[in-house]
Write a structure and sequence with these properties.
- There is one protein chain.
- With 101 residues, the protein is of the alpha/beta class.
- Helix content is 34%, strand content 20%.
- The chain contains 3 helices and 4 strands; from the N terminus they run αβαββαβ.
- α1 runs parallel beside α2.
- The longest helix is centred in the N-terminal third of the chain and has 15 residues.
Length: 101
């Protein structure tokens, strides 16, 4: 298991597993490693995952618990119009520059 997956399994997944009906916003999909792991929790806990990426990652998974939004993650007006007003968890894994984050 690589270091990235280990961090997901050790920190992220246990944290979101405690949330009933979680609404999660994920910024950055790429190849979908985190998306698939987060989505597994959403399926078990009747939650919803909203994922944003500038690239078309719409084929990463197919689930009623997932909504993909193709956009820059700083397009706040668009994203806010497509997600609920309140979320339980924000996972930022997009551009890794302090100013952007």
């Amino acid at each position: 298991m690589d270091e990235y997956s280990l961090k997901l399994d050790k920190f992220l997944i246990p944290a979101i597993s405690k949330i009933h009906k979680p609404t999660i916003l994920e910024l950055g999909v790429e190849n979908g490693i985190s998306t698939k792991k987060i989505l597994d929790v959403c399926k078990l806990n009747n939650g919803k995952l909203y994922s944003v990426d500038v690239n078309d990652c719409s084929k990463v998974v197919d689930s009623k618990n997932w909504k993909f939004i193709q956009s820059r993650d700083d397009n706040f007006d668009l994203i806010n119009s497509l997600i609920p007003k309140e979320i339980d968890f924000l996972y930022i894994d997009s551009l890794h520059e302090a100013k952007h984050v």
